[in-house]
Amino acid sequence: MATGSVLVAPWFAVDLAATWCRPHVLLREHMTSSTLRVLAAPILALAALILLTWPVWRWLWGEWMGNEYYSHGILIPPVSLYLTYQRFRNDKELRWLPGQGSNWGLLLIALGLGLYLWFLGQRAYYLAAFATILMIGGLVWTLGGNNVARRLIFPVAYLALMVPLPFIDRYTLPLAMFTGVCSGGLARFLGLDVEIIGNAVKLPNADLVIGAQCSGVNSLIALTALMVLAAYLVSGPTWGRVALVLLAAPLAILGNILRVSSLLFVAREWGAQAGFVFYHDYSGIGFFVIVLALLLPLTRLLRVNALRSEVI
Question: N or C: which end of the chain has fewer CB atoms below 10 A?
């Protein structure tokens, strides 16, 4: 009997382990295969859409690399993907299941495709980019259905902030002149001997011109994108979230006026080269960080200082 027990025990242990592990292995294989089946259609459809709209993505890349006003645009698609991932991860009512799509999304895709081909033929790339976003929204609606489309409308719509607008340049000179007048007035109030004529600045030791780089447009566009994202992530009254977005413009303009005013003091003390080369290139980042630091008290003031658990 002792010998038999020695012979039987290993066999029994192996059989028990196989019986215990087999369902887990089968369940894991089933989950993997079903997950792949669910994700296959969206991935293939998105890949086809990217190939179709490749001329627009190539144009966007060139703009992000060469247009200083939209250098932040390269961050928008990854942020949109991350928001989508977090929404699926945290929102218990959001599920992407086969067969729950909506044919209404096909109409949106058809509309976006028609607009895309037309704008691409006219070389209106920024409009073709908006049509591409429309097709992405239609794709989500078609494959995911009404519930998925409704809950992912912000991550898709947020992509619009990555598209450079061609008419931005026409506002840089008026904004630069406004910044020059306000900055010069502030510097004069603080005791600096300065004369402002349009966007020209005259100091005792230098004559300067406040150009498009000092207009603050790049900070305005980047801060608007950030405020829109913040308004989506926080919970609270609608008026508070709308106010958070609307405050982007005055905060960016105020921060730029303070930056240019300080630049005038640097140019007066250490020369135009120090003010408009070294200080100009690095002060923008510092003042942008200061403006961002104001977000915390602003969210408390507007009663939107709690994060939405279903989106982040």
Answer: N
Comparing 279 with 36, the larger pLDDT belongs to 279
The residues spanned by each domain of the chain are: 1-45, 53-64+71-164, 168-307
Residues 6+ apart with CB under 8 A from 79: 158, 229
pLDDT at residue 230 in the model = 92
Q: What is the DSSP string of 6-27?
A: HHHHHHHHHHHHHHHHHHHHHH
- Phi/psi at 167 (5° precision): -90, 5
Strand segments (E) across 100-221:
195-197, 200-203, 206-209
What is the token pair recorded at 230?
A: 């913040």
Query: How many angstroms separate the CA atoms of 129 and 58, rounded?
Result: 11
Question: Above 60 in pLDDT, residue 12?
Answer: no
State the CB neighbour count (10 A cutoff) for residue 56. Answer: 23
Continuous segment of H or E residues that includes residue 306: strand 306-307
CB-based burial, 15-31: b 16+ in 10 Å, e otherwise: eeeeeeeeeeeeeeeee
Q: Pull the structure tokens for residue 255.
A: 């921060």
- In angstroms, the Cα distances linking 95 to 85, 147, 148 are 12, 8, 7
pLDDT reported for residue 95? 79
What residues contact residue 146 under an 8 Å CB cut-off, 6+ apart? Answer: 102
Tell me if 171 sits within 8 A of 179, measured CB to CB: no
Residue 279 CA: distances (Å) to CA of 68, 205, 259, 260, 283: 18, 17, 10, 10, 6
CB 98 within 8 A of CB 142: no
Residue 69 region by backbone torsions, left for phi larger than 0, else alpha for psi between -120 and 50, else beta: alpha
Pair of tokens at residue 124: 């209106």
Burial class (CB in 10 A: 0-12, 13-18, 19+), 223: buried
The CA distance from 310 to 188, in Å, is 50
The pLDDT of residue 36:
54
